[in-house]
Amino acid sequence: MRTPLEELVLSRIRPTLQEQEHVLGVAARLIAVATEIGRAEPLIVGSVARGTFIRGDRDLDLFLLFEPDLPREDLEREGLDLARTIAERLNAPYHEKYAEHPYINARMDGLDVDLVPCYRVESAAEIQSAVDRTPFHTRYIEGRIGSYTDDVLLLKQFAKAGGVYGSDQMTEGFSGYLCELLILSFGGFHALLAAAAEWKPGTLIDPGRHRAKEFQEPLVVVDPVDPARNVAASVSLDRMYEFVELARGYRDDPDKSFFFAPMPDTISHEELGSVIQAKGTGLVAITFATPPFIPEVVVPQLRRSLDSLCALLERNGFFVNAADCEMLDDQSMLIFELMNTQTPRVRRHIGPPLWNRSNASRFAAKYRACDSENLFAGPFIENGRYVVEIPRKYIHVEDLLGSPEVLDVGLGKHVRQSMSNHSEVHSGTACWSPAFAPFISRFLSRKSPLTRILDRLDGAGRPYE
To answer: Can you give the residue ranges of every domain in the chain?
Structure first.
C-alpha cells in the first residue's frame, strides 16, 4: 500500500491525460507514415509503449523492423533512408546519430524522436545487433507491468532525484528497463527498497530463472529475454551503493526530498578561489575539443585517460586527492585536485639490489659518471639496494601536464587525437568557466545522495518548493 507522501509524488509525476494523448498522437502519426511507406514494420518501444514514462519526458522511440536476411550494410543504408523519409514527410528536423549502427534523431511536436533500424527476429537468441532485443523488452514488460506502473514511476523518480538514473557511460546507473524489471521481480516499490537495503556485491536477480553464464558485475539482473545478458551491467559499484544508501534512508525517514531534488547551487569564480584557499589543495584541469563521437565511445576514453594521467602525476611526485572528467558538446575537461602543485627538485631513484651483481654494477657505473648538476647524492646503499638522488624534470604540475609526456601515457585513442591537436592547462580559479561551473561544483562538493538529502532536511541547503 502506498503512503500519502507517495500518492502526492505520483500526482506530480504521472503524465497528464493531455500529455498522454499528445505523445500517443505523435506515435500514431509516426506509425501511420511508416506503415504507408511499407518498407519495414514500425514499432513504438520504450517507456511510452509500456506506459511507464514520467510527466515531462519527451523521448519517443520508433523501431523499424527489417527482415533478418537483409545484409548489415543494406540495413544501415535502407534503414537510414527510411528513417529520413519518415522525418521529412512529417516535416521534422533531424540529424544522424551513431551507436552500434547509425539512426536518425528527429524533433517532432516538442518530442525527441529516435528512428532506429533493426532486425525482426523470432527470438532474442537470434539477434544480430544489440537493438534487436528492444522489441522483446517492450513485449515482456507490456504483458506483465499491469498494476505496477505507479511503482515503476516512483522508482524512476526516486532514482532520478538520487542521481543514479541512467545507463549512460557518465552516469553508470539504472536504466528504465532495469527499473521495470526490479519492480516486477520484487513485487513493488516498497519490497524492492527493503531488499535493496541489504544488497551486497554480487547480488543476483534472475527473473526468468535461466541464467546462461557467470557475471562479474556488482549487481546482476539477468535479462528475461536473453539469459546471457546482465541488464544491470552498466551499474557501477558506487551507483549500486548510492541506491542502497537511498533505500535505507527512505525506509528510515521517508520525505519528498527523496523524489524531488532542488537545483544544485553552481559555484562562482570567486567562491572557487575561497574553496581552494580553505582546503589548501591545488586545482588543475586540461580542456580540449570533445571528440566527434557518441558518449558511449568518448566517456570510457575520458576515464581511461584520467586514470593514466593520475598515474603520471603520482610518478612525478604530485599526489592526487580526487579526479574526474566531464564531456560537453564542444569541450571536455579532465580535472585533478592535488595535495601539492609543486614538488622538490630532488627525487629518490631506487636501483637494483647488490646481489643482482651485473645490474647493480651497471646502475652504479651510470650514476657515478653523472656530473653534479644531474646527481645530488649517491649511489649509496640502503636496505641492500643502490639509491641515488637525482633532479626531477618537472617541479610544477602545470609544466608536466603541458608537456609532450602527457601524450605518451595510455590515453584513449580519440582523446589523444583531440589533445594532440590542441589542449589547454588551467590551474586554480582559471579552471572555472560558465560551461564547466556545474561540473566543478559537483566535483568539489562531493557528497553521497543521502548526505545531500539529510543536509537539506537539516536546513543546510535550499528546500524543495
So the answer is: 13-132, 146-258, 269-342+395-444, 346-391
Domains 13-132 and 269-342+395-444 share a fold: no
Q: Going by C-beta distance under 8 Å and a sequence separation of 6 or more, which residues neighbour residue 32?
A: none
Question: 167-190, pLDDT tens digit by residue?
Answer: 888 899 999 999 999 999 999 999
Q: Give one word for 38, left, alpha or beta, with left for phi > 0 and alpha for psi -120 to 50.
A: left
DSSP-derived letter for residue 124 is: G
The 3-state DSSP class for residue 317 equals coil
Strand ordering across the sheet containing 423-427: 320-327, 331-338, 282-289, 423-427
**Average pLDDT over every residue of 369-384:** 91
Task: Tell me the pLDDT band of 460, cut-offs 50, 70 and 90.
Answer: very low
346-391 maps to CATH 1.25.40: no
Exposed / middle / buried, residue 64 (Cβ in 10 Å: 0-12, 13-18, 19+): buried
339 Cβ partners below 8 Å, 6+ apart? 281, 282, 318, 319, 320, 321
CA trace torsion 146, 165, 20, 189 (10° rounding): 30
Question: How large is the average pLDDT for residues 46-55?
Answer: 92
The amino acid at 178: L
Distance CA 250, CA 193 (A): 8
Q: Which of 184, 189, 163 is nearest to 174 (CA)?
A: 163
Q: What is the CATH number of domain 13-132?
A: 3.30.460.10
pLDDT at 459: 64
Best CA proximity match to 297, nearest among 269, 327, 270, 271:
327
Q: Which pLDDT band holds residue 461 (cuts at 50, 70, 90)?
A: very low
What is the CATH T-level fold of the domain 269-342+395-444, as seen in this structure? Answer: Alpha-Beta Plaits (3.30.70)
- Strand extents, DSSP E, 53-110: 59-66, 94-98, 102-108
CATH superfamily, region 146-258: CCA tRNA nucleotidyltransferase, domain 2 (1.10.1410.30)
Q: What is the pLDDT, as a whole number, of residue 464? A: 35
> Is the pLDDT reported for residue 263 higher than 70?
yes
Rounded to whole angstroms, the Cα distance separating 120 from 224 reads: 18
Residue percentage of the chain with pLDDT more than 70: 98
